Model the fold of this input.
Amino acid sequence: MKTLQRETPRPILRETRIRFDNHRDLAVSDVQFGDRINLTTGDVRIARIVDGRRHDTTRDTLVVGVGDFDGYLYELQRVYRTSDGYFHFVRVQWSEDLGLMVRAACTALDAAAALGAALRLLKPRDITLFVRDWYAGGWFPRNDASILPWIERQFGADHCESLLALLSPAPS
Done:
């Protein structure tokens, strides 16, 4: 896949942060895999070899991330893009009652699955930003047959038309 030479868009983050009562950071780790996750700062260090390719949160570009805490379980989900245009999905679960990381996983995604994962994680207020900067900006392979019906279901006619205009080729 082709590597882009222009500036990478900013990640779209909607992550709840957790802090101990004594204002210390809440950091968890997995000794077996060397994972380190700080739920206070959002620093996630997970690296895996999947399908012969390194997927590493410290090297790859964060595209979209959501993290929610329901009072018992914290779940963090993120989509990353490698410098050579591959994608991976990271999911971390942490349980307050157990005081440990329940699961940290890194899964390689093909382009269609990466687009689907990103769209699933986006909040409505972030859709325009994602379409403009990440999708129309060329950071995801184009799959208009997939994204156009999705955009049409999210918005009224005026806003939908403005997003569709971003996807139209520039007039020659």
Observations:
- The longest strand covers residues 100-109.
- The chain has four helices and ten strands.
- Helices lie at 111-121, 127-135, 144-154, 157-167.
